[in-house]
Amino acid sequence: MTYGTVDPGEGKGAKSTLASSVYQQLRDDLLRGALAAESKLRVEWVVSRYGAGASPVREALNRLAAEGLLGRHDQRGFFLMPVSATELEELTRTRCWLEERALRESISHRTAEWEEQLVLALHRLARAERRLPEDPSTNNPEWEKLHRAFHRALIGACRSHWLVGFCDQLSDQASRYRLISQDTPGTGRDDLGEHRIIAERTLDGDADRAVEALLNHYRLTAARCMERFAQGYDPRAGVAKARRR
Amino acid sequence: MTYGTVDPGEGKGAKSTLASSVYQQLRDDLLRGALAAESKLRVEWVVSRYGAGASPVREALNRLAAEGLLGRHDQRGFFLMPVSATELEELTRTRCWLEERALRESISHRTAEWEEQLVLALHRLARAERRLPEDPSTNNPEWEKLHRAFHRALIGACRSHWLVGFCDQLSDQASRYRLISQDTPGTGRDDLGEHRIIAERTLDGDADRAVEALLNHYRLTAARCMERFAQGYDPRAGVAKARRR
DNA sequence: ATCAGCTTTTTTATCGAGATTCTACTTCAT
DNA sequence: ATGAAGTAGAATCTCGATAAAAAAGCTGAT
To answer: How many CB pairs lie under 8 A apart between chains A and B?
Structure first.
């Protein structure tokens, strides 16, 4: 009847805390779009789902709220941030501003090591399948990871961990929209080709055209989400009904 | 002599939670530079200082860590983020990138209401004293608040709450550096004049020159902090002794 | 003296119960 | 019916105690 009867060992998290473990899992599920249907996030529900006490769960929720993936009203608990077309627009706009700056700085301060990292990231991305082989209707988490790593590598030489962090944060938000809206790849789009062009121009030091390709990449993705959004997305996720105080 | 022995009702925070209250107070103290001498932040210490249980305190610490004001190592607690010259440099650089973009967007999407807010913010700032009248060696919290409000108003029309949030975050960090290094105003610097010029050029729609003034403003402040830093700042604050793992 | 290994002390992280606050529902008067 | 007031239920938030982990202290051999 020890404390963590089942828990801390569960899986791999050898020396991490329960709070961090819940944080990670919940975050993954958030980005995966797995929870977008519910607006309110009751602590008790999270507790029973991830098998941890209220205290670590609350810590995890607080972190996620500070990151903008959840919302919080004092004495009224936590809720999933609603999704909307205008929010997606604002998100994309901001993302383009920051990523442009980051990419330009990266290019103008490039190092040999950074270039190698980028080549590597592209290669790995090329090797991965976007959809799961066994179930082509589901996104491949491995691809998602490599995709993020590629974009991360792209701006890795910008000499600002702040800017990198902000881009990551926006990237998380964008992922959420993309996976919620079930953006189906392959439909008249050459994912790999787009990334290859971005990398090529970047490695060539052609900042203007690299930025152009990168921004088009983001805007195209956003536009496709918007479509799905408009046509048939169940708006249950947006029900947060921002209540007054 | 505890802080809020009588706790939640204390003062005005009628319907907020203890966690939020601790968060606010601790955050203020962090920015005020009041705690910079200690590197480690023991939970028990915070508990006894702010008069709340461990759970709300931990929630507050988690929020602050997610914001970058604190650091955290699993199973090893929280610590104050160390300060350093290179970090200040990186911070300033990032800040200039983001604020430039925000100001340009604000100017090119300006509205009458935004302009009025800006005029108002400048007026209020002009009325406030930077130092406390009774003790000229201490910064006036009221001025700090109005100063922040001014810069916030400046970028208020940029149409991105994300960008505004990022700028706020960097602004917090910059405040911390400024107040830690005890940047003494009045020494050969016309604070109000700088802000007035920024506002004028902004209201004139002269984006290029407004940005120039704004960035000079930030860079000058950073340079003054750096001086203080180099000459006589007690580096106890930076002792975080980045321990491996 | 120095360092590995063990013991003690300090600190962090977690749980379970209880107090407080909000929400939903019922009742009653207009 | 509509709306206000009161009540029962559910959820959030908080505390105090306890387990787990890390840090500090100690012993003894090389």
So the answer is: 76
The one-letter amino acid at A24: Q
Q: What is the pTM of this model?
A: 0.89
Residue of A nearest to B173 (CA): A162
Q: How far is the CA of A175 from the C1' of C13 (A)?
A: 32
pLDDT tens digits, one per residue of A190-229: 899 999 999 999 999 999 999 999 999 999 999 999 988 7
Q: Decide: helix, strand or coil at residue A104.
A: helix
- Who touches strand C, with Cβ under 7 Å? A 3-4, 7-8, 17-19, 52-56, 59, 75-76, 243; B 8, 15, 40-44, 54-55, 58, 72-78
- Work out the pLDDT band at A244, boundaries 50, 70, 90: very low
Q: Which of A110, A102, A74 is nearest to B56 (CA)?
A: A74
Chain B residue with minimum CA distance to A92: B160
Contact state of B163 with A15 under an 8 Å Cβ cutoff: no
Residues A47, A41: Cα–Cα separation, whole Å:
11
Decide if B31 contacts B67 (C-beta within 8 A). Answer: no
Nearest-angstrom CA–CA distance, B161 and B164: 5
* Residue that is written with structure tokens 């169940």 in the block: A234
Beta-bridge mates of residue B143:
none
Burial zone of B36 (CB within 10 Å; 0-12 exposed, 13-18 middle, 19+ buried): buried
